[in-house]
Structure formats: structure tokens, C-alpha cells
Specification:
This protein is 87% helix and 0% strand. It has one helix and no strands. It is rod-shaped and about 105 Å long.
Length: 84
């Protein structure tokens, strides 16, 4: 009879540990889903920022080209920009 009681204790311990592991895995899955959502939001923000930077570079290049063409037509306007 003692052996059966020991087995019952072992089985109860097993199921208790199993529930704890299952609970932990559920929390991990929830956290992973939250992180995935945050990464998607960050990716969208990154894409918007990259697009804005691309437009800035195009604008800067167009202004540089215009400055050079005006310089050729009327002489040097300025030697360089503040960032060069």
C-alpha cells in the first residue's frame, strides 16, 4: 500500500509540474506575440522614416544640382553648404 501512495504522490507531483510548465509556455507564447506586434509597429515606423530620409536626400541632391547650375550661369553663389 505504501508503494501505491508513493506512486500517487509522484503522479500528483508530475501533473503539478506539467501544469507549471504548460503555464510557463503559455506566458512565453503571449510575450512572443506581444514582441512580434511591437516589431511590426517598429518596422512600419522604420519604413516611414526611411521614406522621409529618401525624400530628403532627393531634395538635397536637387538643391545641390540647382546651386551648381545657377553657379555656372552666374558665377559661384557659395563654396559649400553648412554640412560639407
Amino acid at each position: 500500500m505504501a508503494m501505491v501512495n508513493d506512486f500517487d504522490k509522484i503522479e500528483k507531483g508530475f501533473w503539478s509540474e506539467f501544469k507549471d510548465i504548460k503555464s510557463t509556455l503559455k506566458k512565453i507564447l503571449e510575450n512572443q506575440e506581444k514582441l512580434s506586434e511591437r516589431i511590426e509597429v517598429m518596422a512600419r515606423k522604420h519604413n516611414k522614416l526611411a521614406e522621409a530620409c529618401r525624400e530628403f536626400v532627393q531634395t538635397r541632391n536637387a538643391a545641390t544640382c540647382l546651386r551648381e547650375e545657377l553657379g555656372e550661369a552666374s558665377g559661384t553663389l557659395i563654396e559649400s553648404t553648412w554640412c560639407e
